[in-house]
Design a protein that fits this description.
CATH architecture of chain A: 3-Layer(aba) Sandwich
CATH superfamily of chain A: Response regulator
CATH topology of chain A: Rossmann fold
Number of domains of chain B: 4
Helix content of chain B: 40-55%
Oligomer: heterodimer
Largest sheet of chain A: 5 strands, parallel
Distance between the termini of chain A: 38 Å
Structural class of chain B: alpha+beta
CATH topology of the largest domain in chain B: Beta-Lactamase
CATH class of chain A: Alpha Beta
Shape of chain B: rod-shaped
Number of domains of chain A: 1
Number of strands of chain A: 5
Number of helices of chain A: 5
CATH class of the largest domain in chain B: Alpha Beta
Radius of gyration of chain B: 60 Å
Strand order of the largest sheet of chain B: 2-1-5-4-3
Structural class of chain A: alpha/beta
Number of strands of chain B: 18
Strand content of chain A: 15-25%
Chain lengths: ~140, ~575
Amino acid sequence: MREFNVLVVDDEQEFRDITVKRLEKRGLKVKGAESGEKALEVLEHGYIDVVLLDVKMPGLDGIETLRRIRSMKPLVEVVLLTGHASVDSGIEGMKLGAFDYLMKPIELDPLLEKLVDAYEKKRIHQDKIEQAEIKRNMSKPV
Amino acid sequence: MNSPYSKIWMRMAVAFCLLITVPVAILVLVTTNSLRDAAIDKTEVSLGRLIEHKKDVITLFLEEKEDLLTMLVGMYPISYLGRQENLDKLFIAVNKTGSIVDLHVIDSSGAQVAYVGPYAQSLVGKSYYNAQWFQEVLIKGSHVSDVFLGFRNVPHIVVAVSDPLKTYVLRATINSEQFNNLLLSSQIGPHGDSFIVNREGKLQTPSRAGLTELNDEDRLLLEHHEGTAIVKREESVVVHSDEKATTEHFDATSIVTRGESIVATRWVKDGQWCLFVKALIEDSLGPFYKVRNHVILVIFGTSVVFLAIALLFINYLLQRIEKEDRRRVELGHQMVQMEKMATVGRLAAGIAHEINNPLQMITSQAGWISELLPEEDPEKVKNFEEYKKSVEQIRSHVRRAGAITHRLLGFSRKISAEKQNVKINELVEETISFVEKEAEYNHVSIIRKYAEGLPETMVDGPQLQQVFLNLLNNAIDETEQGGVIEVRTAVEGSKKLLVEFADNGHGIKPENLQRIFDPFFTTKDPGKGTGLGLYISYDIVKKLGGNIKVANRTGGGAIFTITLPILNLSSPR
């Protein structure tokens, strides 16, 4: 499994901390953000492959954050995490381009699996873009 | 039709009845009354005409006799008529019609000079000087008497005239019978009457109704007739024609409607006699009754038709109202149900979020421990295996709790709505096996009444099993020791499966029957029931396209009936 960068966004510090800790233990590069605004800031300055995003947060909520992430960094994949029993918010997230959504409580293994899948998708997507760029560069007259 | 509607029906029917019958009754009353009045008016008019005519006839008759006598007196002096043979000749000559019974020739001293007639023997030599009529004739020149019995005890009228010089008086007795006949034709109807009275009220002609004396009412008419004066004479009141009365007064006809009859009265002979003509109203109402019956029949028929239409209309209206009411109640129930569901959904969502977050924390922390544990030296940690086991237990219970919250929220329901062919009997039997131990412990026996050869149906087995489990657990809770639970399966029609769970416990209070499926409604002790069991069961059965009903058994206890559609692959759902 390749190492990739994950951003955990959750307003609950304990959850954020332990998730960061555990994912790092599994060999990922993980950062935490306590709000949507903070997450956008981190995304702007750092390199992130996959975002794990809590849907229900004070301030900028998950869905709005997702929308902004999609417009700011279209390549970054987002996995929604919800404690709310609303299928609707999950579906809405999916429509907005989230990779998938997960219900709390969730164990680490299935969570990790989902993150890896998201990363794989991102990677393939990115590869395609890179190759397209190479082709374009090659076709350019030197 | 149930009672509130029949009550409305009654009220409307009565209102419509009144609305139709009251105006119709008034119409009938007014119409018949005016018809009757018109008929009476007509009778009065014809009565007036008749009495006028009769008066003329009577007057003419009497005048004719008077004229005859006046002519004779003018033509022949007493010296001629005083001779018996001349008088005999004259009598034969003038009395062709036989209306004159006899003729007297009386000189101015009152002595009878000559007589022709059937009673010559008894009248010879009689003096009339003191008779009132004789004096009147001498003064006025003529006299028409009332009817009197005379010497022969036979009613007759006397007409007497004197010659212009008052030298003698010629007197004729008129056949009363012929005179009476004149009045016979003046009757209206079979019960009519007509007669003549004199001023004192004595009958001058026989009354057809058999009156021998004027009754009080008739006397009153006589006394109050125009041209009547009442004169007190000694002790008795005597009716007298008014001295001042003119011919005009005597010409007046009075028509009085009195109870059952109409009476027309009129003076004749310048106030000497009064002519009475009576007609019974009933007699003249024949044509009126015919018209009236016709009118009543038509109106009655029309109102019956209207009433029938009104009743049909009411029926139609009430049916519509009842249908509409039922629809609205149903709609109301549905609305309430939907609202409940929405409320529960919101509530559950809130609870789930609050519980799922700590659950997440627990599982994360436990996971962290289990991840870190392998790094420990098992030798150094005394209870290494116990920790490991404990962590696994924590994670497993969190999974269970998570499953419960997800299930409660209907989350898993929506996700795992996988249907497969299910044999209901097997599913029920399997469910019973879950609770059999508990039932045994409570000394409750479960009786199975499975129908053989039930068709399989496409249904979400685990979901349905949860419903059965709920009902069985409730039944066991509600049944006392030694109780019996009956489980029955059957086919209803060809498209429905029936599963019944009946217990002989305490049953459900009537006021709770309506609320039993409500979320969070429970009769169990606090902490023992969430009030969600039956609600979830209801929700599941509805989602599976079935229905669940509850009722109290007549012998005590409750019975839950689940109907499920029979679905298979070929039938589209």
